[in-house]
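Dear Dr. H.,

I hope your travels went smoothly. While you were away I took the liberty of generating a structure for the chain from your last submission, since the lab meeting agenda had it listed for discussion. I wanted you to have the full record in hand beforehand rather than looking at slides cold. The sequence, exactly as received, is reproduced here:
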Amino acid sequence: MLLNTISSFKKDDIITLKNILGEEIMCKFVEEDDTHYTITDPWALGMSQQGMSLMPPVVSGDMSRTVKFRKDHCMWAVPADEKFVPGFIEHISGIAVIPKGSKIIT
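The corresponding predicted structure, in token form, is as follows:
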């Protein structure tokens, strides 16, 4: 039994939710209450011919709005692995994230 059901996530944190079907959803955290996570930009992780890729979790739905994700359908809610975050940010914004330690050559 979980005693504390509220996480330490902050608004706009990139998190990964693993649902009871085993699907992993990367998303931006908005807020939560005792029963739901409110998220934006949800994308399912899946395998493609090029390796790991982001796919829409709902093909026919409008996922551009905030979405509520029931906590009782969630096995894990964790901060996203840092090696996946730049690709996620580029995918949702179109802006490439420059790796730390990179130098600008003029």
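Two observations you may find useful: The helical segments are 85-93. Residues 14-93 form a domain with the SH3 type barrels. fold (CATH 2.30.30.100).

With kind regards,
E. W.
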